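Hey team,

Filing this mostly as a record. A colleague (T.K.) asked me to run one chain through the structure pipeline before their review meeting, and I want the input and output archived in the tracker in case anyone asks later how it was produced. No errors, nothing strange. Just documentation.

Input sequence:
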Amino acid sequence: MTIWFYGQTDAYAEFSNFSPHGFQMEGVWWPTVEHYFQA
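Output structure:
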C-alpha cells in the first residue's frame, strides 16, 4: 500500500486544509482551515 501526502507546492495545494491562508469567522481568526477543524 502506498500513502501519498500533499505538498504545499503541488498543484491545487491552495485548496488543502493546511494551506496557509487564514480566515475570520464570528470574530475569531483562524490561521488555517485545519486549525478551525481541530478546534
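Quick notes for T.K.: Helices lie at 33-38. The mean pLDDT is 89.
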